[in-house]
Structures are given as structure tokens and as C-alpha cells.
Write a structure and sequence with these properties.
The chain has 20 helices and five strands. It has 412 residues and is mainly alpha-helical.
Length: 412
């Protein structure tokens, strides 16, 4: 039995235990149908047996990338088999990168950034942050595909021109869906056809249109799935930590400075009779990315057994979440085998953004590392970004993220 087939069967069997079926949210599978049918029709494997299988596969892994994926599956199988390590340790093994507590001073800096970036209206920062989406809410949301189409075309054209050539016959549709937990999701369906799914149950902020479309489409998830052509992708893995990091940096990469705001003001908002965005949209989205760290902290607190009131209060204080948003977030952040995934957002974004926007540099051997050195990721101005691109970072590194089998260790 060859390694690729064994790897696929392990992923399918593990996914069945984690989600209750042969396909589901723990795995993206585009391999041979007979393999998935085999797993669907056989008795469910035990978690202990899958951990042992992962250990055998790990000994024969063909390269570091494959080994990292199997190591993640071994950690998940062990968790299902009753191993209970601290969440940070479990998540670090799954994602192949350090998972840590993010100090509150990082969120304080993000709050200061939001305070400067948002429109200067009355009220506290929390009130201004919650009022911000309402000013640009699309009503009715059923019109969203009409506006997503030019956004998809623009993000695709910029990715094609600046980062990597894309197939001329590619088709990307936008579809509204209901009864899902996510805001948006991009799925590549093969044959250069893809769909961006957007939650119809959540009011849509048109100021976030390019932020979402670039993340789910180009140069984010759809571009990566199409160009890499991977058949088996376990979602609790190092590659997915980088994928979410790429998704969160995607808008900034192809719309440097406030080009996203200017494009929306010129091409979208006049069509729905909304006033132009007068905020620093790039700063708003940067701060929004930083505040993903709050969610990771709450997941760590939940793993320690903290009470619901404390978790909700932390989300409301630091993520500036409303009562309903905080309550909904707890459903995702409570301990589960899938808990490590949430850390791919802040920690994946922090790593990818630094790699993409900053010139290469050497760290002195005695320079301290760890939580005591964590600060809010710095904004990079347009001139600094241009210099970084000239030094071989920027678009070339984004191209590598979209087309090459990289893991976090390759970025550090």
C-alpha cells in the first residue's frame, strides 16, 4: 500500500471520528472516490488505532511537509483517545507553531488604532465599533451577489497581475447560505470553478466586501486550493494555519494603503446610495485582525475551566463584542477536538504578515523570545511595503504561499 493512499485513509477515518461522517469540516478531500467509499462502509476505527497508524506513517513520511500533516493527525487522534494536555500544547503540535497567550496590551494598541481610524462620532469606542457595520449594511442582503461579482473580478485581476497567473477560464460564483456558523467560506470545486458562500443570516457590512472576498477567493483560499491541487487537507494542520494567515493578509497585499476603501467608494457604495467610507479602512481591518487574538485567549481560558460569565466578559471587554456576538462565540470556543483551529487566525496571520511585509532579518542568538516580547504587529506604510517587495518579499512570498507546500517552520 503506497504512502499517499495510507495518508488519505488515515485522514478520512480520523475525520469520521471527529465529525461523525466520512466527510466533514475537519477535512477537505478531493481524492479517489473509492477511498472515501471504503471508509464510509467500514466499521469506525478507534482513536488509539489511528494514533498508532499515524506513528507508523510518520516514520515513512516523504518530506517535512507530509510529516507535519501526519504529526497533526497523530495529535488529534491522541486527543480523541483521551490524552488531555493543555490546549496550547495540543494546538502547537497540530499547527506546527507556537500557540501562546496574547498580552492585553496588544489589544489595547488595537483599540487605540480603532479609536483613531473610525469615524469621529459620539459615544465610547465600543459603541462606535458596533455602530460601524450598521452604517454600511447592505439591505436587502439578497443583492450581495450583484456586488460580490465586481469585487471577485477586481481581486482576481490584481492577483493575476501582481502575484501569480490564473487560468483564463476560471469561474467564481457568490452564493448566500443559511444555517451555518461561518460568515464566509470559499470552496474550490475543481475544473477552475469555485464558490464563495456568505451567511445570509448575518447582516453584511459592505466596507468588509473586499476583506472577505480576498480572504475566501484571491489571493486567499480559492486561489491556493486551485493552484496547489492538494487532494487531502486535514484542517487541524500547519498548512491551514498558514492558509488562514494568508486569508487575513490577502486584502492588504493587493490593496495597499487605503486602495480598498477608495475602490469601494468608487465602485460599490454609490450603487446602493451609501455615503463614502470616511474611516481609515486599512487600519480598521488591521485592528480587526489583531483582535482575533482575543478569541484565542478565550479558548485558552475555556480550556482551564473558566466560567461562562468570565469568558463572555473578556470577549466584550477586549474583542468589543456585543452580548449576542459574545454568546455565539462561546459555542465555537468551548473545548473540543477542533479547538486548535481558532489559533490559525491571529498566530497564522501574525507569522504570514511579518514574512510577507518585512525584509529578511537575522535575530541575535541572545535576543529574548516568548510572550514577554509580544507586541501588536506594526502597520507597514506604502513606501516600506514597496521596499520590502523590492527586496524579494511581498508578492513573491505570497506566490510561494499560494503555490508551494509550506509549513510555519519555512517562514521562521
Amino acid at each position: 500500500m503506497d504512502w499517499d493512499r495510507e495518508h488519505a485513509l488515515l485522514a478520512l477515518r480520523l475525520n469520521r471520528l471527529m465529525t461523525g461522517g466520512a466527510t466533514g469540516t475537519a477535512l477537505i478531500y478531493d481524492g479517489p472516490a473509492e477511498w472515501s467509499e471504503q471508509v464510509a462502509n467500514e466499521p469506525p476505527a478507534t482513536a488509539g488505532a489511528l494514533k498508532e497508524e499515524a506513528e507508523r506513517l510518520l516514520e515513512r513520511a516523504p518530506d517535512a511537509y507530509a510529516a507535519a500533516q501526519v504529526r497533526a493527525m497523530r495529535a488529534a487522534a491522541g486527543h480523541l483517545d483521551g490524552e488531555r494536555r493543555p490546549l496550547a500544547e495540543y494546538a502547537s503540535e497540530c499547527l506546527g507553531m507556537e500557540v501562546r497567550w496574547v498580552p492585553e496590551e496588544v489589544f489595547e494598541q488595537a483599540h487605540d488604532e480603532l479609536d483613531r481610524a473610525l469615524p469621529k462620532t459620539r459615544g465610547s469606542l465600543e459603541e462606535r465599533w458596533r455602530a460601524w457595520p450598521a452604517a454600511y449594511t447592505l439591505d436587502p442582503i439578497e443583492r450581495l451577489p450583484e456586488f460580490a461579482e465586481p469585487a471577485v473580478a477586481e481581486t482576481r485581476a490584481r492577483t493575476n497581475a501582481r502575484i501569480v497567473p490564473l487560468p483564463d477560464d476560471e469561474v467564481v460564483e457568490c452564493r448566500l447560505v443559511q444555517g451555518v456558523t461561518y460568515h464566509g467560506a470559499g470552496s474550490y470545486e475543481g475544473g477552475h470553478k469555485s464558490t464563495i458562500h456568505i451567511n445570509n443570516d448575518i447582516p453584511f457590512n459592505l466596507a468588509d466586501l473586499l476583506y472577505l472576498v480576498a480572504h475566501e477567493g484571491h489571493p486567499g483560499h480559492i486561489a491556493e486550493s486551485m493552484l496547489k491541487g492538494e487532494k487531502v487537507r486535514f484542517m487541524l494542520s500547519p498548512s491551514f494555519a498558514l492558509s488562514e494567515g494568508l486569508g487575513l493578509v490577502a486584502e492588504e497585499v493587493i490593496f495597499p494603503g487605503n486602495e480598498a476603501r477608495d475602490w469601494l467608494n468608487a465602485n460599490i457604495l454609490p450603487k446602493v446610495g451609501l455615503e463614502p467610507i470616511d474611516a481609515d479602512l486599512a487600519a480598521v481591518h488591521h485592528a480587526k485582525n489583531v483582535l482575533w487574538g482575543v478569541w484565542g485567549n478565550v479558548a485558552l481560558m475555556a480550556d482551564e475551566g473558566r466560567g461562562e460569565a468570565e469568558l463572555t466578559g473578556y470577549l466584550r471587554r477586549w474583542a468589543l463584542a456585543g452580548e449576542e456576538e459574545a454568546a455565539a462565540a462561546l459555542g465555537i470556543l468551548r473545548p473540543s477536538p477542533m479547538s486548535p483551529y481558532i489559533f490559525g487566525y491571529f498566530h497564522g496571520w501574525e507569522l504570514v504578515r511579518r514574512w510577507v511585509t518585512e525584509p529578511e532579518r537575522v535575530t541575535a542568538p541572545d535576543q529574548p523570545t516568548g510572550p514577554e516580547r509580544v507586541t501588536a504587529p506594526e502597520r507597514v506604510t506604502a513606501p516600506e511595503r514597496a521596499t520590502a517587495h523590492q527586496r524579494g518579499t511581498g508578492s513573491e512570498r505570497v506566490r510561494r504561499l499560494i503555490t508551494e507546500r509550506l509549513i510555519p517552520a519555512d517562514l521562521t
